[in-house]
Amino acid sequence: MSSEIQLSLFNEESNFAQKELIPTDAKIPVPPGTYTNLTELAQHCNQCQRCELGSTRTHAVVGRGNLKAPIMIIGEAPGQNEDETGLPFVGRSGQLLDKILASVNLTTEQDVYIANINKCRPPNNRVPTPNEMAACLPYLLEQIRLVDPKIILLTGATAVKGLTGDKRGITKIRGQWLEWAGRLCMPIFHPSYLLRNPSKEPNSPKWLMWQDIQTVRAKYDEIRTSN
Ligand code: SF4
């Protein structure tokens, strides 16, 4: 074995030895394979102080839905309802998201797992800072590894930026398939944006969302029949 390989093994072991320190400091790496299940990950998130959002949260909001879902939806960060309940997308936005999914026969019991870029609520629902997103990203990467979805939907520009680094506006890229880390991703509008834009006229945000969710359903069916 070369000394380089021996050294890298040593590093990996030392990372795992620091596992209990992960929630304490954003500089502690989170190597792939750190968590064997989402319960372990949630325990870390609920004691985490890797960024300042940890000091004001009521509950860390990790995820809801089928833990082995073929579709994963990733939002920005919890709001007040989510902070209080510990579940993502449970307010008006969440109800609309569930309706959108139901319109193409998708459910969180079977097909979908929902998570956020940041697990803790930013004060006054502000957008998480780049440092806060970077501090929380390793947890999300572990969630994606454990759920192993075939399709990832990113709701809104912050979710796209937080996961892929793509800074383009959501109206430019929504409805397009992107490849990230070998996975099929689609940016879509955030349901809260649809609540602020209720028109259903052709080319309105709601109308575009209806096109996008049908495209997602068709791709999901295609993947299922090819497997
Ligand atoms: S937002 Fe993420 S990184 Fe920041 S304290 Fe909460 S769990 Fe930790």
Features:
six-stranded mixed beta sheet, 6 strands, hydrolase, DNA damage, binds iron/sulfur cluster, alpha/beta, Uracil-DNA_glycosylase-like, DNA repair, single chain, 227 residues, metal-binding
Bound molecules: iron/sulfur cluster
Query: What is the SS-derived class?
Result: alpha/beta
The major β-sheet equals: 6 strands, mixed
Which blocks of ≥5 consecutive residues have pLDDT under 50? none
Taken as a percent bin, the fraction of beta residues is 5-15%
Number of helices: 9
Question: What is the string of SSEs from the N terminus onward?
Answer: HHEEHHEHEHHEEHH
Q: Span between N and C termini?
A: 39 Å
**Spatial strand arrangement across the major sheet:** 1-3-2-4-6-5
Average pLDDT over all residues: 93
Radius of gyration: 18 Å
Overall geometry: globular
Which range best describes the helical content: under 10%, 10-25%, 25-40%, 40-55%, 55-70% or over 70%? 40-55%
Number of strands: 6
Itemize the secondary structure elements and their pairings.
Blueprint: H1 3-17, H2 38-46, E1 64-65, E2 71-75, H3 80-85, H4 92-102, E3 112-116, H5 130-147, E4 151-155, H6 157-164, H7 170-173, E5 178-180, E6 183-188, H8 191-196, H9 205-226
Parallel strand pairs: 2-3, 2-4, 4-6
Antiparallel strand pairs: 1-3, 5-6
Structure, described:
By secondary structure, the chain is α/β, with parallel strands linked by helices. The chain contains nine helices and six strands. Strands 1-3-2-4-6-5 form a six-stranded mixed beta sheet, with helices on both faces. A hairpin with a 2-residue loop joins strand 5 and strand 6. The mean pLDDT is 93. Bound molecules: iron/sulfur cluster. Iron/sulfur cluster binds at residues 45, 48-51, 53-54, 60, 118-120, 132, 135-136.
